[in-house]
Amino acid sequence: AASAAAPAVGPELAGDSVEALADTLARAERKALLAALQACGGNRRLAASRLGISRAGFYAKLQQHGIQR
After folding, report:
1. Using CA atoms, how far apart are residues 69 and 61, in angstroms rounded to an integer?
2. Number of domains in the chain
């Protein structure tokens, strides 16, 4: 019987890598919010639906990202 080798363990993420990931995710989320708003003609309820999130969640994310539309 063949035994499966354990996956190699890579170096732990440095603090900078984690921060870079958080920044990347925040930029992607902001871009998605703005794109949904534009595609929906500024209709926040429709934009939230398009993104698959609640209206309240959408408003919270707009506030978090400083989007005033």
Report:
1. 12
2. 1
> What is d(CA 46, CA 50) in angstroms, rounded to the nearest whole number?
6
Tokens of 5: 């080798």
Residue located via tokens 């707009």: 62
pLDDT by residue (tens digit) across 13-54?
566 777 799 999 999 999 999 999 999 999 999 999 999 999
| Closest among 28, 22, 34 to 58, alpha carbons compared | 34
53 in a structural domain = yes
Q: What pTM does this model have?
A: 0.73
CATH of the domain at 58: 1.10.10
Give the range of the structural domain holding residue 58, as residue numbers without chain letter: 29-69
**What is the distance between the alpha carbons of residues 54 and 8, in angstroms, rounded to a whole number?**
40
